[in-house]
Amino acid sequence: MGDPCSSVETRTAVVREAYAALNRGDVAGFVANFAEDAVRVEPSDSPTGGTYRGLAAIAEHVKVGRGTWAEGSCEPEGFVFAGDRVVALVRVHVRLASETTWREGRVGDVFTFRGGKIVEFRTFWDEREAVEWARSADRHAGDTMAAHPKNTICLWFDRDAEEAARFYAETFPDSKVTAVRRAPADYPSGKKGDVLTVEFVVLGIPCIGLNGGPAFRHSEAFSFQVATVDQAETDRYWNAIVGNGGQESACGWCRDRWGISWQITPVALTRAFTSPDPGVAKRAFEAMMTMTKIDVAKIEAAAAG
Predict the structure, then answer these.
(1) Percent of the chain predicted with pLDDT > 90
(2) pTM score, two decimals?
């Protein structure tokens, strides 16, 4: 619901640096941005599973876990955001000191921020479960957003702002209509008592819909980019938008019936075309350029070569 002291870019940078520190064995660096009263939750079926409270306990926990590695890394390859939570989609490539074989897999790590610091670090074996938990936790955290957010996206509608806002609230998680305001007097495109503005939240982002009349139209110069964890989630949002009077475009873009553009972007796509391997990035990008809705399996096949 918006930590004003910590932007999405800042939180992402903090999480990336934490993993970089972990990979080089720097425990102090890993916990450098944790709050003193932070909480660490690791699945109970892990050898070091449990709940650890306080910076010192978390640091010791990380030290013990990192000490079991002989070599390897945990690399965040994508991020999903839910209010004050950052979900890192992590590729694990580790050989333990007690083993000769490598452990390969993926986990979802959820970092909760408050006041610019990490106050909770929670791991899930399944990336989708991590994303769903973060979104659910944010929905039920209560409305901690300030009465007047510093930054609100204002979207111009002809006269259908309320209909659009309610559609978004029904379609996307962490979305809701928070207020409907009526004009206190006549205005150029309406009369006293008409719905003038609608305040709503889309995927945790505060917005206001303004019924300003037909003077201005939307274009692809502005779009919402929605990170999806798999094909099922991609299909769900795409079909909801296009099936409700919207229009398909290209490369994962579509427009809703009010002309607002949406990029329905699987994390697998972002992960592939931002790969440090130029061959992987090129193949994934070229595959994307042939698509309308993104096909996750084809992106992954292209990335694999």
Answers:
(1) 80
(2) 0.64
